[in-house]
Amino acid sequence: MKRKAEDNIEPVSAAPDSEQPDQPSEQQQPEPTQAPATKEATFTDLGLDPRLVQAIAKQNFEKPTLVQRTAIPLALDGQDVLAKAKTGSGKTLAYILPVLQSILKRKQTDTTAYTAALILVPTRELADQVFKVIETFTAFCAKDVQTVKLTDKVSDAVQRSLLSNNPDIVISTPARAWQSINSSTLVVDKLTNLVLDEADLVLSYGYDEDLENISRAIPKGVQAIMMSATLTAEVDTLKALFCRNPKVLNLEEKDAEGEGVKQFIVKTAEDEKFLLAYVIFKLQLVKGKCIIFVADVDRCYRLRLFFEQFGIRSTILNSELPVNSRIHVVEEFNRNVYDILIASDENEVIGDEEDQEASKAPEEEKEEAATEPKEGETEQKRPKKKRKTVKRDKEYGVSRGIDFQNVACVINFDLPTSTKSYTHRIGRTARAAQTGMALSFYVPSDLYRKHVPTSVETAANDEKVLARIIKQQNKQGKEVKPYIFDMNQVEPFRYRMNDALRAVTKVAIREARTRELRQELLKSEKLKRHFEENPGELHHLRHDGELRAARTQAHLKHIPDYLLPKEGKEAITSQHMGFVPLVNKDKKVRGKKFKGKFNRPGGFKVGGRKGDPLKSFKARRKTK
C-alpha cells in the first residue's frame, strides 16, 4: 500500500474518469500503477467475501464510487481512515463493507461471539438507515453477522437482552453507546473496529463528553474509520481521540458530465414566500419530489395548513414526531408515496467561526420576541404555552446523513443560518450523478418584519448569510443565479394567498401541531406491534392527510381560468387537474324507454310514482 502513502489530495487523481487527463501526470511516480486498477475496478477486484459480492450484485452496483475504491483497500489493510467526500458519494458502503469483511474473515477461524464493531452516528434516522444498509448487504451471510441498533425506544430490560448475545455490530448515537458501556450491558473489551459516520456533525450535536468517555473505554489499537462531508476543527478533535496516524482522503469529485445542482435565489417579501410557493406547486412549475426546508416546527404546520387550503398535499418531518414516524415518513418519501416533504431544520449545522454572527439567531420555535434569547432559556420564557414544552428529540437531524432518494428540487423556504447548513441542504438533491435544483428564498433587510404574521427571526440575517453562500459557491466554481418571477402574472393570485393565510391562525397551528403529534404517537407506539405482525398494512399508513385545524375554503382548491397566464394554461387543463364530473352530461342516452327522462325535473319514475323518493320520503312499501 505504499502508493497510498500520501494522505491528502492524492486520492483524487485515482479517478481519472472524473478529473482532467492532465492532472494525474502532476502526481508522484507510483500513481500510474494505481490509475489503471481504479479506472476499471469492480467490487470483485477489492478482494471481498463472495457473499458480499453476491449481495452487491443483487443491488445492481456495477462499479465502486471514488470514495469506495479509495477507502475500502486502505480499511481492509488495517489502516485508520479519515475520508471527506460529498453527500451521495457512497460513504456508508465504504465503511460497511470493510467492517463486514473483517467479521466474516475472523469467523472462518474463530466463532467466538463478541462485539467487534461499533458504529457511531449523530441521529436516530441515520442509525436506522445504516442498519438497513447492513441488512441489505448481509443477505447471504445473515447467520454469521448479528447487528443491533440502540436508538430504538425500548426498556432497559429489552436492551440488555439484545446486547446479552454479544452482537457483532452495534449501531448507536454516542450518548446511547456510552450509557450502555457504562452500565456494562455493552461489552467493548474485544472491539476491533470503530466507525464515526458524519464525524463533523457528531460533536456539534453535543456528544463531546460521551465520545471522550468512549475513547477511554475501548481498547487501544482499534481501527478507526471516519466519514465526513467536511474537514473541520471538530474532525481534528475526533482524529486525535481515536486515530493512529490515519490516512486522510480529501476526495473532491466533480459532478458527472458537468451536471449537478442548479442553484437559484429569489428576492422576496415575507408573505410573498407563501405566494410563490402556492404558484409553484399549484401550477406545477416543479416536477418531481421536493423537500422544503423551514426554520422551525411552527413553520412546518403553517406551510402545510396553507397548502391544504389549495388542495396541495404534503407531509411533515420534524423533531417532535416519534422516531418511528420519522423513519416511516422518510421510507415512504423514498418510495414516491409523497411528493412534497416539509422539513424543519432545528438542529442545523452552525458554520465555522465566520458564520457565528448569523448563528446567533434565536431559537427556531420562538415566534415573536424583542430580544434574542440565550441558548437554553427559551423554555423558561414560555411556561404557559403547552405546545412549547413538547420535548423535542435532540438526536434528530434532517439536512445531513439521511438518504433522500430521487429528489428533484430543494426549496429553502427559510434561508439557513450558515453556509455549511446550506451546502448540506442542497446536497439532498442531485445525488448519485443525478441532476437537481435548489431554490432559495431570501428576505432583504428593508422588507424584514413588514408582514409580522409570516415573519421568522432568522430572516434578519438573510442578506449576510446569502453573501457568504455566494462567495463559498463561487470558490467551488458553482454559480448561484437569481430567479426572477414575473410578478405581473403572479399578482392575480395574491388575494387567494391572503385568504388562505388569514385562515391559518396561531390557534389553528397549535391545534394542528397537537393533533398531529397525538396521532403520530398512536401510530408509532400503540400500533407498533400490530405492524410488526402485519407489515403489509404499514404501506397503507399515510402521513399527508388533512389536518383540518384551519378554516377551509373550498373555492381555493380550484383555479379559475381568468387567473391563469397564457403560459400556464397547459399545466392545469382538465386532463391534468381540476374537477372531474361523475356523469358525462354530453353523452347521449341510448334506448327509447328512458329517452328524455334524465332531463325532466322530476327524474324518471320509480315504482310508478313521480319524484325522487329520497327527497319525498314516500317510497312505496315492498309487497310480499
Give a description of the structure.
It is a single chain. The protein is of the alpha/beta class and 624 residues long. The protein folds into 2 domains: 2-250, Rossmann fold; 256-351 and 390-572, Rossmann fold, CATH 3.40.50. 33% of the residues lie in helices and 11% in strands. It contains 21 helices and 14 strands. The protein has helices at residues 31-39, 50-58, 66-76, 91-107, 124-137, 156-164, 174-182, 199-202, 208-217, 233-242, 272-282, 297-308, 323-334, 378-381, 419-426, 462-475, 487-490, 494-503, 506-526, 528-533, 613-616, and strands at residues 81-84, 117-120, 147-149, 169-172, 193-197, 223-228, 247-250, 261-267, 289-294, 315-317, 340-344, 407-412, 436-442, 480-482. Strands 3-4-2-5-6-1-7 form a 7-stranded parallel sheet, with helices on both faces. The chain has a 7-stranded parallel sheet with strand order 10-11-9-12-13-8-14, sandwiched between helices. Helix 3 (66-76) runs parallel beside helix 4 (91-107). The longest helix is centred in the last third of the chain and has 21 residues, at 506-526. The radius of gyration is 28 Å and the shape is globular. The model is unreliable at 1-39, 255-259, 349-390 and 569-608 (pLDDT under 50).
List the helices and strands and how they pair.
Elements: H1 31-39, H2 50-58, H3 66-76, E1 81-84, H4 91-107, E2 117-120, H5 124-137, E3 147-149, H6 156-164, E4 169-172, H7 174-182, E5 193-197, H8 199-202, H9 208-217, E6 223-228, H10 233-242, E7 247-250, E8 261-267, H11 272-282, E9 289-294, H12 297-308, E10 315-317, H13 323-334, E11 340-344, H14 378-381, E12 407-412, H15 419-426, E13 436-442, H16 462-475, E14 480-482, H17 487-490, H18 494-503, H19 506-526, H20 528-533, H21 613-616
Helix pairs in contact: 3-4, 4-5, 7-9, 12-19
Function: ATP-binding RNA helicase involved in the biogenesis of 60S ribosomal subunits and is required for the normal formation of 25S and 5.8S rRNAs.
Biased composition (Basic residues): 382-391
Biased composition (Basic and acidic residues): 357-381
